């Protein structure tokens, strides 16, 4: 069985392209382990985030493994496996910020950057209605703007933000706090997206996720990236 897997390649530490064009990250390692468990030959295809669901629907690949949150809106367009991880969102701001928390009031009057077409941008637009929410095509672009002083804060998955803060350019900023996920917006976690009606493929992925959790392979990959269990409750 051959499976083509779509991913973004611009969302470290989950999926990222190295300088020499190789894919790396938690999503990629999990995808490879799932393929091995399913005895499938897998090929990765990188795709810009904005066009990733249309590309799946058009048959460019068979599954999306790219930290895609399972949401009701997306479920109208694609089917999802069960989650393979669930980590909370967070807010990062410059070190000299006067932002003291993550509430609507804390961020009132501030400019907030987020990657567009994500649960994080949806949450920001619905919650921070007294703020200037600015959307970016990739996480890398909002990072540049906060480094250069063009944003008061950014929001994303806390793991993505921690990775940024630990990088050379991340010494500009600090984590203000984490946001309690709202299931109606954030969903129950990140899942693998497949085309509607491909139940057999979905169930093969689900069985493989369970197997990785049980055979220790998930923990082995998890511990390479995180100091806690990213699977969540």
Automatic annotation (TrEMBL):
InterPro entries: Iontro_rcpt_C (IPR001320), SBP_3_CS (IPR018313), Solute-binding_3/MltF_N (IPR001638)
Coiled coil location: none
Pfam family for this entry, one: SBP_bac_3
GO CC, any one term: cell envelope
Domain Solute-binding protein family 3/N-terminal stretches: 2-229
GO molecular function terms listed in the Swiss-Prot or TrEMBL record: ligand-gated monoatomic ion channel activity
UniProt entry keywords in alphabetical sequence: Signal
Residues annotated as domain Ionotropic glutamate receptor C-terminal: 2-228
Subcellular location: Cell envelope
Domain of life: Bacteria
Similarity remark: Belongs to the bacterial solute-binding protein 3 family.
The protein's name: Extracellular solute-binding protein
């Amino acid at each position: 069985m051959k499976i083509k897997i779509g991913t973004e390649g611009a969302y470290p530490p989950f999926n990222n392209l190295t300088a020499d064009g190789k894919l790396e990250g938690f999503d990629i390692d999990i995808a490879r382990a799932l393929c091995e468990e399913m005895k499938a030959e897998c090929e990765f295809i990188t795709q810009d985030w904005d066009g990733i669901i249309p590309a799946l629907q058009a048959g460019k690949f068979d599954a999306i493994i790219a930290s895609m949150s399972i949401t009701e809106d997306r479920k109208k367009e694609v089917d999802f496996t069960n989650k393979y991880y669930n980590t909370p969102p967070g807010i990062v701001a410059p070190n000299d910020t006067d932002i003291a928390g993550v509430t609507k009031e804390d961020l009132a009057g501030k400019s907030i950057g987020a990657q567009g077409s994500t649960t994080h941008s949806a949450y920001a637009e619905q919650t921070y209605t007294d703020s200037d929410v600015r959307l970016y095509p990739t996480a890398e672009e909002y990072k540049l703007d906060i480094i250069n002083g063009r944003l008061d804060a950014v929001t994303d998955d806390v793991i993505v933000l921690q990775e940024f803060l630990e990088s050379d350019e991340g010494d500009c900023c600090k984590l203000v706090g984490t946001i309690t996920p709202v299931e109606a917006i954030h969903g129950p976690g990140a899942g693998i997206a497949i085309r509607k009606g491909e139940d057999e493929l979905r169930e093969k992925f689900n069985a493989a996720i369970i197997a990785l959790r049980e055979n220790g392979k998930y923990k082995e990959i998890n511990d390479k990236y995180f100091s806690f269990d990213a699977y969540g409750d």
